[in-house]
Amino acid sequence: MRKTVLTFGLIAGGIMALMMVVSVRLVDRVSFDKLEVLGYTTIVISLLMVFFGVRSYRENVAGGTISFGKAFKVGLLITLVSCAIYVIAWQVVYHTLAPDFAEKYSNHVIEKARAAGATEAELSRQVQDMKRFMELYKNPLINIAFTLLEPLPIGLLVTLITALILRKRRKDQLSEAKS
After folding, report:
1. Per residue in 46-98, pLDDT tens?
2. What is the pLDDT of residues 119-155, one digit of tens each?
């Protein structure tokens, strides 16, 4: 199981990390909103490795059968490996290529609120919220937690769907279950 989990988890994490680097390089030329869509689309696509990894495990290791629980476990481990790569990559990118990310993101959020017609009171509240965000984001544990919350929920959903689709019992187990 270890080889399957590491192989597919590293591929998924590598895809996410590569797109992260590309996105950070584009942040001054493309809007945050478009980059957010691109980023989440990349996360979903890369997490297809969960499906391929569980299927590979079922066919190559488990003899063509896999329970929901085992499929979920394999998928979850692939998700966790890919999320770890994503978080590590962001820490490197954030501290080397994008140390001003929190400030740029805060400015984007405030400008977006202003463009949406926010009142002065709402803008003032938004400015205060973003100052708190920037202060929180300086804490490495908070930064890591925020980063982990980007791919993890998607990975859990993909894992659940994958386990439901790929579970496959042996024929003798099926006939016993019907009896």
Report:
1. 999 999 999 999 999 999 999 999 999 999 999 999 999 999 999 999 999 98
2. 888 889 988 998 998 899 889 999 999 999 999 999 9
Beta bridge partners of 66: 168
In Å, how far from its chain's centre is CA 150? 5
Instruction: Rounding to the nearest 10 degrees, give the CA dihedral for residues 11, 68, 160, 142.
Output: -70
Of 53, 74, 51, 63, give the one whose Cα is nearest residue 173. 63
Q: Which residues contact 177 (CB under 8 A, 6 or more apart)?
A: 169
Q: Which residue do the tokens 């993101």 mark?
A: 105
Residue 74 · residue 4 · CB < 8 Å? yes
Give φ, ψ of 87 to 5 degrees. Answer: -65, -45
Q: With beta carbons less than 8 A apart as the criterion, state whether 163 and 50 touch.
A: no
**How many C-beta neighbours within 10 Å does residue 37 have?**
11
Distant-in-sequence, close-in-space partners of 173: CB < 8 Å, separation ≥ 6 = 65
CA dihedral (95, 100, 104, 105) in degrees, to 10, reads 30
What whole-number distance in Å separates Cα of residue 160 and Cα of residue 69?
Answer: 10
